[in-house]
Amino acid sequence: MKVERLTEIKKLLDRAGEMPDELAKNLHQWFRVELTYTSNALEGNTLTRRETAMVVEKGITVGGKSLVEHLEATNHAQAFDWIAEKARKPLKHFKENDLLSLHKMILSGIDNHNAGFYRNVPVRLSGSRTVLPNPRKVPDLISAFHKWLQTTKKIHPVDLAAEAHYRLVTIHPFIDGNGRTARLLMNLILMCHGYPPAIIRKNERGKYLDALEKAQTGGSQDDYLQLIYRAVDRSLDIYVEATSGEGDFVSEPDDSLLRIGQLAKQTGINVSTIRFWLTSGLLEVSETTPSGYQLFSAAMVIRIEEIKSLKEQRFTLQEIKSKLSSMSDVAEDIMNRYKSTFEKLAD
User: Fold this and answer.
1) Where are the domains of the chain?
2) Quick one: angle between helices 299-312 and 317-337, nearest 10?
3) Catalytic annotation present for 156
4) What CATH topology corresponds to 3-244?
5) Which residue in 188, 204, 208, 199 sits closest to 239, CA to CA?
6) What residues have CB less than 8 Å from 305, skipping those under 6 apart?
7) Which of 4, 68, 195, 326 is 20 to 30 A from residue 127's alpha carbon, by CA?
8) What is the pLDDT of residue 336?
9) Are 297 and 286 in contact (CB under 8 A)?
10) What is the pTM of this model?
11) Strand, coil or helix: what is 192?
12) For residue 238, what is the DSSP state?
């Protein structure tokens, strides 16, 4: 994909004129949830898209999820509202203090000691060969970064946004929250130039990190730029469809979720039996799409295997339901008991 394609699509949007206020509001709310979900998921947050919407839009607490994960959602949504407001003015109005304010929003209530402050300790990226700058160099690097951002003229807005994101994560100025801050800055730049925000999907995490590391260790930026171009292209398509009245800009389902037919194929159980077990309370739906499709997590594959095993032992459906409930309680107890251990392993 070439950046010129993005220019042509944007021209189509520009010719359509200013969109109705209600549509603009709906798009903002959709991107607010979608960006919050995807950006946090890239960093390991386990809230699903639906749970993120519940937290961000309704202020509902999700059982089994940590306070930090809730704060990551509400903080990111607030930060997105903030950059959307900042994008009403030219990029030259975005100053270094604004970058610190943006980072402070990201870590507010999570790590107040470091929120809005540059790191003063060396850091390394787990599993990466990338060497990050000495903390003593960070203030000067950020000063040079802002000078570059304010004086660079002859570069396509999407390339500018991508390069700003790349430079900021490479400086890695903060103890935590660098990726989220850099992605929000990238989207601020895009929005300042009339482009929609770019969404890097959860299932692109590996490609995204690999592309960044390749460029940071002396390789080509081509893979990284192509990933950003595709992200902007998808968002432009959403805007075009919305303004033409042809699309409802609904979220794509998580790649990890299964439709009922896929669940049936993986487990060897027919769809009608799965529906019966669902109405009997043996199975749970993870998400329902706006089109009415029920989506199931991979945990339901394991659940079905447990049901099959219990049925072979001639337990009744009510007995199976009771046993599954007990298994679930035990699993949750184990997860809570060893949560800190799992988190250390994940790090």
Assistant:
1) 3-244, 258-346
2) 130
3) no
4) Fic-like fold (1.10.3290)
5) 199
6) 267
7) 68
8) 47
9) yes
10) 0.73
11) helix
12) H
Q: Nearest CA to 119 among 134, 140, 97, 101?
A: 134
Tokens of 270: 């027919």
- CB 236 within 8 Å of CB 249: no
- Indicate the class that CATH gives domain 258-346: mainly alpha
- Integer Cα distance of 250 and 287 in angstroms: 13
- The whole-angstrom separation of Cα 229 and Cα 117 is 31
CA distance 227 to 1: 9
Q: Could you report the average pLDDT of every consecutive run of 10 residues in the chain (347 residues)? A: 88 84 92 96 94 94 94 98 97 95 98 97 88 95 96 92 98 97 98 96 93 95 96 91 65 67 88 91 80 78 89 89 68 44 40
Burial grade of 4 (CB within 10 A; 0-12, 13-18, 19 or more): exposed
Nearest alpha-carbon partner for 113 in 67, 58, 177 = 177
Catalytically annotated residue among 70, 76, 103, 172: 172
Let me know if 101 is exposed, middle or buried by CB neighbors in 10 A (0-12, 13-18, 19+): middle
Six-digit token string for 127: 């599993």
Q: Which two tokens stand for residue 65?
A: 């999820």
Could you tell me the two tokens for 16?
Answer: 């359509």
- Which has the closest alpha carbon to 198: 19, 66, 35? 35
The DSSP line for 311-337 is HHTT--HHHHHHHHHHHHHHHHHHHHH
